[in-house]
């Protein structure tokens, strides 16, 4: 195995650990609607989740006001 491959593997492991940490933090948050999260995940996996960019832009502008 070459050195570059090992560095890439180390980075992947660190990334996975970071993702696990964030996932654990999210689980601790009580205001997350996990049923909705699962629903959206299923829609994404089925290719049925579509993002309305105009709605996102409106919400972003609301936050800035």
TrEMBL record:
Q: Which UniProt keywords apply?
A: Bacterial flagellum biogenesis, Cell projection, Cilium, Flagellum, Repressor, Transcription, Transcription regulation
Which InterPro entries does the entry mention?
Answer: Anti-sigma-28_factor_FlgM_sf, FlgM, FlgM_C
Which one Pfam family would you cite for this protein? FlgM
Q: Where is the Anti-sigma-28 factor FlgM C-terminal domain?
A: 17-62
Q: Which GO terms describe its biological process?
A: bacterial-type flagellum organization; negative regulation of DNA-templated transcription
The keyword Iron is assigned to this record? no
Q: Per its UniProt record, what NCBIfam families does this chain match?
A: FlgM_jcvi (TIGR03824)
Similarity comment: Belongs to the FlgM family.
Please state what the protein is called.
Negative regulator of flagellin synthesis
Q: Which organism is it from?
A: Iocasia fonsfrigidae
């Amino acid at each position: 195995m070459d050195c570059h491959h090992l560095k890439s593997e180390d980075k992947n492991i660190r990334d996975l650990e970071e993702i696990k940490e964030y996932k654990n933090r999210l689980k601790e948050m009580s205001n997350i609607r996990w049923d909705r999260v699962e629903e959206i995940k299923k829609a994404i996996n089925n290719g049925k989740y579509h993002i309305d960019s105009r709605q996102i832009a409106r919400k972003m502008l609301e936050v800035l006001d």
